[in-house]
Amino acid sequence: MYLFNGNLYILSLLKLIIMKLTFLGGAGTVTGSKIILEVNYKKLLIDCGLFQGLKELRLKNWEKLPINSDEIDTVFLTHAHLDHSGYLPILVKNGYKGKIYCSEATKDLAKIILLDSGKIQEEEAHRANEHHYTKHEKAVPLYDREDAVNTLSHFQTFKLNEWFPIDDTIKFKFLNSGHILGSTFIVFEINGKTIVFSGDIGRKNPIILPKYEYISNADYLVIESTYGNRLHEQIDIKEALLKPIIKTYEKGGTLVIPTFSVERAQEIIYLLSVLKRENKLPKIPIYLDSPMGVNATEVYLNYKNNHILSHEDVSSMLSTVHLVSDVETSKSVVSNKNQKIVLAGSGMLTGGRVLHYLDSLISDPKNSILIVGYQAVGTRGRALLSGDSEIKFFGSYHKINAEIFTINAFSGHADQSELLDWLKHFKKPPLLTFINHGEPHQSQALKTKIKNDLGWKCTVAKMENEYYLD
After folding, report:
1. Predicted local confidence at residue 15, as pLDDT
2. Residue 142 class from Cβ within 10 Å (0-12 exposed, 13-18 middle, 19+ buried)?
3. What is the predicted pLDDT for the residue at 441?
4. C-alpha torsion angle, residues 245, 246, 251, 256 (rounded to 10)
5. Among 320, 327, 362, 383, which has the minimal tally of Cβ within 10 Å of its Cβ?
6. How many helices (H) and strands (E) does the chain have?
7. Could you write out the DSSP letters of every residue in 175-234?
8. Helix, strand, or coil here: 150?
9. The dihedral of CA 225, 226, 232, 238: what is its sign?
10. Tell me, what's the pLDDT at 345?
11. Nearest 5°: CA angle at 99, between 72 and 29?
12. Could you tell me which residues come within 8 angstroms of residue 162 by beta carbon, excluding any fewer than 6 positions away?
């Protein structure tokens, strides 16, 4: 027997374990991932992501969480991407005192991502005030670089494939999920029950990472569904990358590749280096203009046991691309009218240095923009893919005359067939599978596929619903 009073469970002398999941983000959307796992009096937060994309989603970042920050005991990160880690500085600013558990590489990448996020938000608020395109009396950043710095001391890292205790009834381990460097599945064992959180699942044959690990058992499973409704293109990705490069070169233009600074940038640099070794690239300079991308590339190359790149691959990558960090060099590359290939963040065109290149290049039809990653609803990247005639940034609208290319096969997320491949390695069905981290049609499609092909019991997670686990 137990009594329920708000968030407080008063247990009887029986050692009754009560478990509950509440999705505070990443349910019905691919962004803002946050899941509360409650075990009796203990509250664990799985991922702490920032909402991106549609304004109605971004506004959620300013809303108070339905749980006080100081009530959370521990945060677990599946990986470092902003939609899984970007809310951490707000959590800490609002009173969180606990630790942030993750893999070693996730800590190093999260440091880069959070500091960059704080800096970009400071800059955007300053620009909005300077050019008077804020609707508020004064634009303020969601958090600043100092808030990000204050978050870093909370991180604690753990090795993969080892169990670690939280208390007498709870232990956990991290397993490689193959999505980005350091990305993990999180497996909890709680009083004999196993709960698995997939985070983001990588590809079956990643470009520069080892593939995801299989898991054989779970009583409850939370799985992402970013591409739960589709299959990725089966193409020669090197040749697909080469095509817009050659076409833009022949037009006399510049190719801009809005690039996610973690994983996607390193994959493209690697492929460009291979094309260069094969003497297929035109002789024009290639730039990675992203401080975060440069720092993330250095982290990747430092973790030699966490990727499949050879020493020759690494050397070739470093000789292929000019790494740009400082502002003055960036300005000179933007103003230089010579042909070039530029990789610049952010990957969804939500901010960052890529906007300065678009400001200079997007209105000229001889230039091209290559989209190489998922574009959330409401982002400028999604507007380009949708064929919009103009996009707004820096307070004004810009005509889209540049040619738009896209390569879907670059995705770091497993597609429907790869998700099913991972699921089929469970020895028996979980009691219940929760589908999250997907737009509604994606999650529903994966739910239907899992029920029809595997016969599993599953449900699509809903925001702020409470799910009690037997």
Report:
1. 57
2. buried
3. 96
4. 0
5. 327
6. 14, 24
7. EE-SSSTT-EEEEEEETTEEEEE--S---SS-SSSPPPPP----SEEEEE-TBTT-----
8. helix
9. negative
10. 86
11. 60
12. 173
Residue 84, both tokens? 């899984």
CB atoms closer than 10 angstroms to residue 179: 28
User: Do 431 and 220 touch, CB atoms closer than 8 A?
Assistant: yes
Non-local CB neighbours of 104 within 8 Å, separated by 6+ positions: 157, 159, 182, 303
pLDDT of residue 17: 80
Could you state, in chain order, the average pLDDT of each consecutive group of 10 residues for the chain (470 residues)? Answer: 40 66 96 96 96 89 95 98 97 97 97 92 84 76 96 98 96 97 97 96 94 97 96 92 98 95 92 97 96 89 90 92 93 96 91 92 97 87 95 93 92 95 98 97 98 97 95
**What would the two tokens of residue 60 be?**
């959620």
CA proximity to 221, closest of 431, 451, 454: 431
Half-sphere exposure of 450 (CA within 13 A, CB side): 31
Full set of structural domains in the chain with CATH? 2-230+412-469 (3.60.15.10), 237-410 (3.40.50.10890)
**Burial group, residue 13, by CB count within 10 angstroms (0-12, 13-18, 19+):** exposed
SS (H, E, C) 296-328: HHHHHHHCHHHCCCCHHHHHHHHHHCEEECCHH
Q: Which two tokens stand for residue 160?
A: 């993969």
What's the pLDDT at 133?
72
Phi then psi for residue 361, to 5 deg, are -120, -20
Amino acid at 368: S
Amino acid (one-letter) located at 103: S
Residue type, 125: A
Which pLDDT score is estimated for 149?
98
